[in-house]
Amino acid sequence: MFQDELFQNIAYKVMATNEDEHWVMYVVNRIKGSGSRVREVVVDKSSNHVSCSCKMFECAGIPCWHMLAYFCRMQMEDLPNEYILRRWTKSAKAMRVRDDLGSGMKEICDTSLLDRRYRLFQLASTLIDEAMVIEDGTEFVVELLSSGHKKMCDMKKVSQDGERSAIQVPNIRDHCLKEPLQVRANGCGK
Length: 190
Hints:
Blueprint: H1 2-8, E1 12-19, E2 23-30, E3 39-44, E4 50-52, H2 56-60, H3 65-73, E5 96-98, E6 105-107, H4 111-131, H5 135-160
Antiparallel strand pairs: 1-2, 2-3, 3-4, 5-6
Helix pairs in contact: 4-5
């Protein structure tokens, strides 16, 4: 959705119309073609907050092409953090999950655990990319991962026996999907 908005901003021009000590108003319209709606982008000078008259950011949480056209005119290479909502990031679902009934929320892990997982994935991905080119390297990585998996199973067994403490993370794969409740639709035959 954001890419669509980003590609659209190329076709728009931005012109400053009104300005006072608190805000600046820009008019955004299409370069070619008549009949397109003219939108107003208002920039608060004190906080650099940008808002558009189409209200797409307030509704969908994605900056509209009018705002993106303004950012391009101001030669901003990075989108300000306030215009990247948490729900559109990779870590949006990582912090909370719904319980079995679908109502309550519970924490499953913290950001340090996610950071460690990410580092491990990056390292493993690099190792696999390098090993797959060489036959001996592939065999070496298979043996290495097998022995590492065995050691991890032993470490889990020791920690479950209570000899050492470990971070307890619920295994999401253990939860089964349940069949939805049968609901009789309106207007169906008897």
